[in-house]
Design brief:
- By secondary structure, the protein is of the alpha/beta class.
- It contains ten helices and seven strands.
- Strands 3-2-1-4-6-5-7 form a seven-stranded mixed sheet, with helices on both faces.
- The longest helix is centred in the first third of the chain and has 17 residues.
- The chain is globular, with a radius of gyration of 17 Å.
Length: 223
């Protein structure tokens, strides 16, 4: 094993989190969340970013958003906020955020993390990042086994995320290593539907998400 491989688990990371404009966020939860949909979307993003900031392997978190509301709240948590450029979709926005991360911390790896992980545990993210540090590119599939919750590239490796429909297959096709790790359920549990939210709450969602979820009739014990 080379010196670089032995030291790889100690690599620090710049993590890019894309956050939608709240008016377009969590639309699949519209029926269940009703008037609380935007608050829920913001709470989920805030719990995700807060957990990432507490991860020992994360140097900084870069939030890409054009919405001033999450920009202010997530910036107050300690994230660096950059605009959604070049306005050409998710993957170009992530590439833009990653470039900003590499400018400010050239020696770090860069990763794209879903903003929909309200149960995220810092230690589980750290385990995944340590595994990712051993290969040029890596990704973590979501709980459904179709999407991706984390994509990473080591320093000096082109950052080429392939989020979108069936991103698990797309990342595999591009040569990224799938991280088949146990014990990272919180990193794989993204939230798009009411059942996803129930599963995240069962894992132990962050305080902001739990507070808003408590307002939803569909999640009350009598529902």
């Amino acid at each position: 094993m080379s010196t670089a491989e032995r030291s790889a688990p100690h690599l620090q990371w710049s993590i890019v989190v894309p956050v939608k404009v709240l008016a377009r966020a969590k639309t699949r939860l519209s029926g269940a969340a009703g008037p609380h949909r935007r608050a829920l979307a913001l709470a989920v993003a805030a719990d995700t970013v807060s957990a990432a900031l507490r991860c020992a392997r994360v140097r900084h978190v870069i939030v890409v958003t054009d919405d001033p509301v999450p920009a202010a709240e997530l910036g107050a948590l300690g994230a660096r906020v950059v605009p959604d450029e070049p306005g050409a979709g998710l993957n170009p926005a992530l590439v833009h955020g990653a470039a900003r991360g590499r400018e400010s911390a050239p020696g770090t790896g860069v990763g794209a993390l879903s903003a929909d992980l309200p149960a995220l545990r810092p230690d589980e993210l750290g385990r995944a990042l340590d595994a990712a540090a051993r290969v040029p590119e890596a990704f973590v599939p979501d709980a459904a086994g179709v999407g991706t919750t984390l994509y990473t590239a080591r320093p000096g490796v082109p950052f080429a995320p392939a989020f979108g429909r069936d991103s698990r297959t797309a990342h595999r096709a591009r040569g990224a290593r799938e991280l088949a790790l146990g014990g990272i359920d919180s990193l794989r549990r993204d939230v798009d539907t009411l059942d996803d939210l129930r599963a995240a709450l069962a894992l132990g969602a962050g305080p902001r998400t739990a507070a808003v979820a408590g307002l939803l009739p569909a999640l009350r014990p009598s529902a």
